[in-house]
Design goal:
With about 350 residues, the chain is an alpha+beta fold. It is about 30% helix and about 20% strand. The protein has a seven-stranded mixed beta sheet with strand order 9-8-7-6-14-12-13. Helix 4 packs antiparallel against helix 6.
Length: about 350
Amino acid sequence: MAETAPATAAGPASGAAAELVWFQEVDKGAVALVGGKCASLGELINAGVRVPPGFALTTAGYRRFVHEGGIASAIRELTAGIDPQDIDALEGRSRELRALVEATPFSIALEDAIAEFYRRLSLRCCLPATPVAVRSSATAEDLPGASFAGQQDTYLWIRGVDDLLAHVRRCMASLFTARAIAYRAKMGFAHDAVAISVGVQKMANSFAAGVMFTLDPANGDRSVIAIDANFGFGESVVSGEVTPDHFVVNKVALDIIGRRISRKEICYTVDFGAQKSRAQEVPFERQTVQSIIDEEVIELARMGKAIGAPLRPADGHRVGGRQGSPCRRKHLHPAGAAGDGVERKTAGTRRGRSRSRRSTTS
């Protein structure tokens, strides 16, 4: 299905930077417009990789929001003269800045444009108010001399226009976390020179998820792929709240040459009553069960090997499965830098068959 931008989002023909774009309309050359994550998503789509659909509010949209909201001068004043060593003052300024951004409304035109893109995304997914991940995508992520990855926020399982707009503002406000402010001050980046894009992507209701490195993150060995996984969404793995299952796969033979099955006490999944992503306790009898089966590990490694070429080593991706056979359909979501020379991906599947009979492998 081909999507066209509403009139309020400037396109190439207008000569102005677009304020909203579909992922397939951008590539790695659009980092200044949509940030590192969204640019990598577009690169993957254009390389033929299965990626959940979505769109981005661009840096032009962010600057329009700041301009129309009349908060540019307030941001300059609150970020001026910040001492990154003064933690109390830094936290105070951060709270003020985030509250300012979150309380600033979108203009009617920009709000309508975002709502129209969300409506078209829901239409494409054949699900009204389709659940989405709202993900920050900063333009200064993964630079050669500095990495801002992980300093901004991501929100999972967001439904409805009002909730979407609120969380887009929260993502933009996360440009001013205390950590991000201090890092920019330390690295010499002007606070008003760093912009942010926000990606809105169809949510995959994963049975299991995690992180995949297309080289060994411990020693840089490019002959292997490393996968960390847990039940539910990848949040518990990325945040370090659990010790995930760990797999090492030989890239050439695609054999599992190492594994460690951990006790996984919590996972993040959907509370369908509240329609929110929440941490839940994993039943005791399942805590030491392998979160993804060997066939899925091999399939994910095969995908990681195949998509390594279109992306530079610091790019990262999340993978989420769809209903059905867990190994037949997988989707990728860029997740930010994993460190020096490390390509990161998240592995995910959705429940496609009973897994209660799996045995723990040591």
